[in-house]
Design goal:
This protein is of the alpha+beta class and 122 residues long. The chain contains four helices and six strands; from the N terminus they run αββαβαβαββ. The chain has one domain: Aminopeptidase, CATH 3.40.630.
């Protein structure tokens, strides 16, 4: 599943030696997205963002985020967005500390919870 999601957009990975320690995939805006914010021109979004638990706190996640933000800027994005469960308070706090702001909510058909959409001006 991870491999499939990584190839649906622009996938990036982090390795230590030959061990995969992080992933993130960024997607361009597209018409008809279930999340209205993701349909906006020049609004890119990311998902499949994860860091191996034993490597969390080492800076790999921050490096992946910085790389994706720079990649999006270079490809014309004016906003970079994401969504996460409205109940993921620590994640929401982290993203807000990184400059992301709440711009809406989305109720995905494939989940059983409401998500908050956060976005950052590039």
């Amino acid at each position: 599943m991870t491999r499939s999601r990584l190839t649906d957009g622009f996938g990036f990975v982090a390795y230590v030696d030959s061990t995969l320690v992080g992933t993130i995939t960024v997607y361009n805006s597209y018409d008809g997205a279930q999340c209205e914010w993701y349909s906006r021109k020049k609004v890119w979004h990311f998902g499949q963002f994860a860091v191996e638990p034993s490597q969390q706190g080492t800076g790999f996640g921050r490096l992946l985020m910085q790389h994706v933000e720079e990649f999006c800027k270079q490809h014309g994005a004016t906003e970079l967005a994401l969504d996460t469960s409205v109940n993921a308070h620590s994640l929401i706090d982290l993203y807000q500390k990184l400059g992301y702001r709440k711009v809406g909510n989305v109720n995905w058909e494939v989940t059983n919870y409401l998500s908050v959409v956060l976005s950052k001006t590039m």
